[in-house]
Amino acid sequence: MSRENLGWLYYKEMYAKGNNSGHIKKSFANLLKANAKDESLNLSQSFTLTTTYPGLIIGSGYTHGISSDEDSKMGFYFDFTSGLPTLPGSSIKGVLRALFGYDAKADNKEQKHQFIRELLKKEQLNVTKLAEEIFEGSREGKPLSIYKRDKFYEARIVITSGGILQEDYITPHKEALKNPVPLKIIKVSGGTTFEFAFELHDSDIDGVSVSADEKLLLFFELLQYSGVGAKTNVGYGQFEAKESAKLKAEKKLKADAIKAEQEREKSEREKQLKEAKLKEALQSAGTPAQKIALAIENIKENKEIHELISSFELSSDDKEELCIIIEKKIGPKPAPKNKAAIQWARKIYGLLGK
Fold first, then answer.
1. What are the helix (H) ranges across the chain?
2. What is the pTM of this model?
3. What three-state secondary structure class fits 208?
């Protein structure tokens, strides 16, 4: 955290003595001396990106600047609490939303969708539906639980390479035959590292899965492709990743995929083993009740137990024997209630004549 609130210095202290060029110059110099970083959010779904030359401009739409030549002529965004430059989560979300082409009047929508599919390596993905989940927090027009919605946090400065702010000049050409008047501005220096943090969830779009880690890596690539902030068309707001950060993200994604496949294979082997043991046990079992008792050992749903019992022809003796087995499995016959599990339990006892 910075000891001096840079936002307060830029918007308040700089004008404490009115249009006093000496005081404004001193305040501006103090602003450029600041070398501070913010605290990490310590979220597992995060990555770092570093600004490249010429730097980053944020909050240019805010009002700032008076007639003094020493003053900056353009607004800048500082976090209210820390006083440091941050990238609001809403701004990051807006940049990504535009890259998804998720607007009715979005340009080159299909090209953007194809770009997303190529980055994710999922040719059958419905990008519009994925964007609806990510940016609207809804699925098929219905809102998701707040605990299932993707969240975008502010990007914070976590590593610096010197002063975090520098002065710069822009030269707007208002008239074609007149020399432009340079305007003094401030920017985040090149070589400043921001931490981008999210809380993402797995999505299933018409049978095409997009994991939280895949979303994270997608955002990682898109933000480097587009840049953030003002004047990205002339080079500002561009980021680069240290190779180690990219490799780390890709390595984690691959490791998770390998682990998921191993778990799937293990689960399939266990399922086949159980089925083989059950088949062998059923062949050696005597009465239908004994066969059912073996078959329901690993069944948890009352509905499935009901379907299994329904497939057998049971004698009175079988039903009596099976009642004892069923009571141990699901408990005694319950009183009527408007719950599916209880309704199926009563149907099971109904099959047994109880």
1. 6-11, 21-33, 89-99, 109-120, 127-131, 212-226, 243-284, 288-295, 302-310, 316-330, 340-351
2. 0.68
3. strand
Q: How far apart are CA 174 and CA 298, in angstroms?
A: 78
Q: Is 286 exposed, middle or buried (0-12, 13-18, 19+ CB in 10 A)?
A: exposed
Amino acid identity at 202: D
Residue 184: exposed, middle, or buried by beta-carbon count in 10 A (0-12, 13-18, 19+)?
middle
Instruction: Average the pLDDT over each of 13-22, 52-61, 103-112, 170-179 and give the range with the smallest value.
Output: 170-179
Which residue type sits at 317? Answer: D
- 209 by DSSP, 3-state: which? strand
Q: Where along the chain do its domains lie? A: 6-241, 285-351
Q: What is the mean pLDDT of residues 62-81?
A: 85
DSSP letter string, 281-336 = HHHH--SHHHHHHHHTTT---HHHHHHHHHTS---HHHHHHHHHHHHHHH-SPPPP
The 8-class DSSP code of residue 155 comes to B
Q: How many CA atoms lie within 13 A of 94 on its CB side?
A: 9
> For the CA atoms of 2, 5, 10, 16, what is the dihedral angle to 10 degrees?
-140
- Token pair, residue 51, equals 């600004």
Report how far residue 346's alpha carbon sits from residue 130's, in angstroms, rounded to the nearest whole number. Answer: 42
In this predicted structure, the answer to whether residue 267 has a pLDDT above a threshold of 50 is yes
Structure tokens of 54?
A: 């010429």
With tokens 């994925």, the residue in question is 130
Residues 6 or more apart whose Cβ sits within 8 Å of residue 112: 99, 100, 101, 106, 127
Instruction: Give the DSSP letter of residue 38.
Output: P
Tokens of 5: 């609130």
In 3D space, the residue among 171, 205, 173 whose CA is nearest the CA of residue 185 turns out to be 171
As a whole number of angstroms, the distance between CA 219 and CA 93 comes to: 10
Question: Which two three-digit tokens encode residue 299?
Answer: 């069944």
Residue in 121, 136, 142, 135 with CA at minimum distance from that of residue 210: 121
pLDDT at 285: 66
Please state at what angle helix 302-310 crosses helix 340-351, rounded to 10 degrees. Answer: 20
Which residues make beta-bridge pairs with 159? 193
State both tokens at 36: 């501070």
